[in-house]
């Protein structure tokens, strides 16, 4: 059975490194790649009445942007390299969703980047790597 | 738009040295132009002392409770499960969750009604008003369920993904579907009163209470608070400065939670008096405790404040809930029936208990009857006015710092309620006049102007008008609900059947 690498990709430098690392391994092992873009989202946050009304529109825009701007160019590039690539966009707690996706797509490995402690997003992503390292049900590679 | 706001600001600054006379003038004009309307809405039923509109709301709530077989109790547990996300499809993550729909609608109702309104109710109706307030809250859950289900079912969905809904939409479409006449007319009438209600209860009442509280605690003149509030609301709803709104949306829930915790702390510190407080509530609910109107007076005050606080049957929450994308209108109805429970049965009751337990209301030791002050209100320990000052005195008697925290809470609650009601009013406005930037701007400017008017006018004129405007929405909404409730019943039966058969499945 061929392997599936789940790579968390949000377009950041750290996720680029994770992708590069995963793509190299995939060439060697003929693994399939699953690029996942997860948007941080809590169903228990507070929205105003107007935000409630506009939420579906915003969500559609966010998913569209994630697919066309972030994932699609990378997917095309990887396919041109002869790799098998799938993409997925989800909402939720990033580490949890990545763990769930690994199960859903029978991924054999999760690959995430770690960007150190620069800025809020980096911190967020750093904690994602930490959480996955502790909680993932499949081997998890954290790319520095 | 900048010009208009500058003009408004300039007018106020010029008037500042003569603020007392300006306030009096505004008040006089306000009272004179709204009294006829208030009298019409609160006219008593012939031969009784009960305003017909209060009877109308309670009758509606009773009818819905019976027609749907006490749905508020049958579906209560299921509603909690929906809000916890048990029935949310993980694939829909990123859409508005049931929890968010509930809290967005609550932000329009939890607020001053729970702090000021309850104080008004018990200072006129005595402790007994609390009993009737709780009963009205429990009954109101069925009204809320009915209107919010219809709100989702008959909303308009636009190609860009946004939605518009509420009573004006279900009245028009639902009546057309059932082949009933006058749907369009009733929808417009509802919209007119919704706009007035948004300017009254959703605006002037809020501004008035916030301004009077800030003035009594910090000594800031009401016209300054009015100007500041209308300025901030202007920046948010006209200037599109969402960051301010976003901050409040984060802060207000904690304010609500903090208010609840402080109230509970006072109750726990006085735990030995809780039994006495409840016996006072029951005694006042069924016997004459010396208030104006006796037992009927307690009923009226309790029902009136419950309706003003949780807005069940008014139709406002249906506007907020209809914006939620869900496959099941009924599940949205279930979520909404929790609102009167949280708002009235929990939070309002807590406020009433704090006022009763800290013994703010003066009782004649010999007769056990309340001592009446002027205006037919029960005299209180500090001789403060009804509304926020009374609640503030009650909290202050337990914790010295509480009035300051309460002043901040009142200001923020007022702000978030205004933002929510500006949305309700706007939806009714655009229903009548069509969507478009110029038309929306006109409404927003009127809205901001009325914040200032509300801040400087007297409590009685404002509170009467805001009650009247809000209750008027219920006239048309409840008529429509009577005609459309068979549709809700059909949806309900189908939903419950599919829930039982496992077709509607839990994900967690």
TrEMBL record, chain A:
Family annotation (Gene3D superfamilies): HUPs
Transmembrane segments annotated in the record for this chain: none
InterPro entries, sorted: Rossmann-like_a/b/a_fold, Universal_stress_UspA, UspA
Occurrences of domain UspA (ranges): 3-144
One Pfam match: Usp
PANTHER family linked to this entry: STRESS RESPONSE PROTEIN NHAX, UNIVERSAL STRESS PROTEIN UP12
UniProt family annotation: Belongs to the universal stress protein A family.
Protein name, UniProt field: Nucleotide-binding universal stress UspA family protein
Species name: Roseinatronobacter monicus
Taxonomic classification: Bacteria, Pseudomonadati, Pseudomonadota, Alphaproteobacteria, Rhodobacterales
TrEMBL record, chain B:
Transmembrane segment boundaries: 49-70, 180-200, 220-239, 251-269, 281-300, 341-363, 401-424, 445-463, 469-488
Domain of life: Bacteria
Keywords assigned: Cell inner membrane, Cell membrane, Membrane, Signal, Symport, Transmembrane, Transmembrane helix, Transport
One GO cellular component, as annotated: plasma membrane
Segment forming the signal sequence: 1-20
InterPro entries: Na/Ala_symport
Topology term for the membrane: Multi-pass membrane protein
Main location class: membrane
Family: Belongs to the alanine or glycine:cation symporter (AGCS) (TC 2.A.25) family.
Name assigned to this protein: AGCS family alanine or glycine:cation symporter
UniProt source species: Roseinatronobacter monicus
């Amino acid at each position: 059975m061929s392997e599936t690498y789940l790579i968390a990709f949000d377009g950041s430098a750290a996720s680029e490194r994770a992708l590069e690392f995963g793509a190299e391994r995939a060439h060697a092992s003929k693994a399939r790649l699953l690029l996942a873009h997860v948007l941080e989202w809590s169903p228990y946050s507070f929205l105003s009445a107007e935000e409630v009304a506009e939420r579906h529109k915003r969500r559609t825009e966010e998913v569209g942007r994630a697919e066309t701007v972030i994932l699609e160019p990378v997917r095309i590039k990887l396919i041109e390299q002869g790799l098998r690539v799938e993409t997925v966009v989800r909402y939720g707690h990033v580490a949890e969703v990545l763990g769930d996706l690994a199960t859903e797509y029978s991924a054999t490995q999760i690959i995430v980047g770690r960007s150190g402690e620069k800025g809020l997003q980096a911190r967020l992503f750093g904690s994602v790597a930490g959480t996955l390292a502790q909680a993932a049900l499949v081997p998890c590679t954290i790319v520095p | 738009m900048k010009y208009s706001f500058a003009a408004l600001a300039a007018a106020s600054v010029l008037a500042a040295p003569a603020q007392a006379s300006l306030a009096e003038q505004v008040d006089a004009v306000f009272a004179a132009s709204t009294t006829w309307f208030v009298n019409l809405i609160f006219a008593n039923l012939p031969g009784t002392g009960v305003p017909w509109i209060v009877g109308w709301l309670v009758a509606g709530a009773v009818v819905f409770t019976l027609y749907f077989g006490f749905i508020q109790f049958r579906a209560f547990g299921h509603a909690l499960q929906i809000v916890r996300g048990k029935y949310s499809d993980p694939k829909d993550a990123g859409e508005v969750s049931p929890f968010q729909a509930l809290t967005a609608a609550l932000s329009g109702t939890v607020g001053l009604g729970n702090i000021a309104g309850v104080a008004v109710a018990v200072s006129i109706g005595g402790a007994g008003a609390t009993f009737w307030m709780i009963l009205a809250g429990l009954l109101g859950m069925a009204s809320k369920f009915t209107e919010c289900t219809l709100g989702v079912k008959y909303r308009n969905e636009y190609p860009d993904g946004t939605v518009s809904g509420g009573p004006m939409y279900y009245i028009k479409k639902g009546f057309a579907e059932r082949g009933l006449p006058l749907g369009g007319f009733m929808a417009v009438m509802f919209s007119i009163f919704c706009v007035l209600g948004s300017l009254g209860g959703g605006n002037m009442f809020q501004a008035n209470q916030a301004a009077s509280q800030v003035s009594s605690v910090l000594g800031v003149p009401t016209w300054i608070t009015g100007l500041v509030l209308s300025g901030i609301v202007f920046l948010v709803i006209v200037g599109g400065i969402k960051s301010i709104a976003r901050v409040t949306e984060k802060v207000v829930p904690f304010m609500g939670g903090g208010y609840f915790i402080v109230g509970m702390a006072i109750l726990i510190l006085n735990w030995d008096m809780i039994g006495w407080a409840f016996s006072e509530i029951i005694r006042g609910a069924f016997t004459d405790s010396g208030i104006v109107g006796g037992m009927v007076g307690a009923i009226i005050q309790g029902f009136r404040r419950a309706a003003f606080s949780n807005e069940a049957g008014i139709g406002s929450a249906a506007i907020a809930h209809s914006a939620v994308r869900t496959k099941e209108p009924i599940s949205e109805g279930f979520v909404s029936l929790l609102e009167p429970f949280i708002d009235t049965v929990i939070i309002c009751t807590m406020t009433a208990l704090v006022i009763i337990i800290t013994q703010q209301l003066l009782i004649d030791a010999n007769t056990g009857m309340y001592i009446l002050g002027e205006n037919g209100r029960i005299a209180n320990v500090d001789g403060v006015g009804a509304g926020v000052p009374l609640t503030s005195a009650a909290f202050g008697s337990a914790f010295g710092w509480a009035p300051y925290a309460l002043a901040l809470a009142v200001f923020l609650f007022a702000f978030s309620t205004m933002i929510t009601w500006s949305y309700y009013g706007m939806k009714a406005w655009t229903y009548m006049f069509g969507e478009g930037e110029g038309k929306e701007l006109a409404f927003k400017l009127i809205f901001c102007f009325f914040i200032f008017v509300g801040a400087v006018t007297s409590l009685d004129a404002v509170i009467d008008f805001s009650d009247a405007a809000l209750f008027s929405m219920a006239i048309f909404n409840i008529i429509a609900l009577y005609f459309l409730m068979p549709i809700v019943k059909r949806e309900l039966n189908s939903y419950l059947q599919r829930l039982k058969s496992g077709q509607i499945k839990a994900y967690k």
